[in-house]
Design a protein that fits this description.
Layout (H helix, E strand, L loop, with lengths): L1 H10 L6 E2 H12 L3 H9 L2 E2 L7 H6 L12 E6 L2 E6 L3 H12 L8 H4 L2 H13 L1 H15 L3 E5 L1 E4 L2 E4 L8 E7 L4 E8 L7 H13 L4 H14 L1 H11 L11 E8 L13 E3 L3 H5 L8 E5 L4 E5 L8 E3 L8
Parallel strand pairs: 2-3, 9-10, 10-11
Antiparallel strand pairs: 1-4, 3-4, 5-8, 6-7, 8-9, 12-13, 13-14
């Protein structure tokens, strides 16, 4: 309906926006949608002088929804009337952002959340969206036919069972044994918001490093516990699959995180962080970190930069060849 109105106005040579009441009127007259519902839905998509963010907040709080990325209907007031301007592809971009980077985390316009049915939908999505990442990982592991266990709260061994879902340790999303890397992976999955700026990237850094119960701190405790109780861990894995029984005692234990979308911290993390698209190569020992060589011609210096990428790089020595 909105696209149709926009096209008709452009065909008449009118680029001065759409009278806000035109949207509401057409929703009610042509689609039999009650005025209150139309105002509720479209109200969540409009950006005007009453809900726009202050410039400082706009820069420092990019995760807020009161911005053009989420509100594609720009409202200008002319002679007491409100006119809506809709940029090319802005509508599609906004709806995709809500679907992929807002609603699954329980975030939606406050106008929409006043609708009881939609509010329930949002919370249902919030409860279930974390399973997507774990389900995708499980499919990869099953395809590789590796011994594994999911959502591990207890280790099963010859003496019985040991509960690990306790204070300071907690449930492990996945335990996977790879014969290709000779490692037993202790895996936590983190379904992250997509980050488009450094202010938001800082939130990921804080979650992994600085928060009171940071992801790194929790992983460190888990890895330490499993190293101290390696025999129990191995018995638990062999209970699931004994195909690697002859060599699994020599496997190293490594804690890793698997995420759905890249984040800057993953390039300099204490524990390795991989996206779901990388993890199959990791398990098969095919993943290679990219190395970069930076040459400073004026000082005849070169540096090799590899993972972790934010460390001081190693200087390479070389001699220039004086010819064409």
């Amino acid at each position: 309906m909105i696209a149709s109105i926009d096209e008709k106005l452009k065909a008449k040579g009118d680029d001065n926006g759409v009278n806000w009441e035109t949207y509401i009127f057409n929703m009610e007259q042509n689609l039999s949608i009650p005025r209150a519902s139309s105002e509720q839905f479209l109200g969540g998509l409009r950006l005007d002088k009453t809900n726009k963010m202050e410039l400082l907040d706009l820069a420092c709080k990019p995760y807020k929804l009161d911005r053009y990325l989420y509100k594609p209907l720009l409202i200008w007031e002319v002679d007491g009337k409100e006119y809506s301007f809709l940029g090319i592809n802005a509508w599609t971009e906004a709806i995709l952002q809500y679907a992929t980077n807002a609603i699954p985390w329980g975030k939606a316009p406050q106008e929409w959340m006043k609708n009881a049915c939609f509010k329930k939908y949002v919370h249902d999505k919030e409860d279930s969206h974390g399973d997507w990442l774990e389900n995708s990982l499980e499919e990869i592991i099953k395809d590789l036919k590796f011994p594994y266990d999911r959502n591990v709260k207890n280790l099963t061994h010859v003496k019985g069972s040991t509960n690990i879902d306790v204070e300071g340790l907690g449930e492990v999303d996945f335990i996977v044994a790879s014969k290709h890397t000779k490692r037993i992976y202790i895996i936590d999955c983190k379904h992250l918001l997509s980050r488009y700026d450094m202010a938001n990237q800082r939130n990921d850094f804080n979650a992994f490093v600085k928060n009171k119960k940071s992801y790194n701190e929790t992983m460190s405790k888990k890895v330490e516990w499993f190293q101290d109780n390696k025999e129990l861990l191995i018995e638990h894995i062999l209970e699931k699959d004994d195909s690697q029984s002859s060599e699994i005692n020599n496997y190293n234990i490594e804690g890793i995180f698997i995420i759905n979308t890249p984040t800057i911290y993953m390039y300099n993390s204490e524990f390795r962080i991989y996206t779901i698209s990388q993890i199959k190569d990791v398990f098969l020992d095919k993943h290679k970190d990219i190395d970069f060589v930076i040459v400073e011609d004026e000082e005849n210096k070169a540096y090799r930069i590899g993972y972790p990428y934010f460390e001081i790089p190693d200087e390479l020595t070389f001699e220039l060849i004086e010819n064409d």
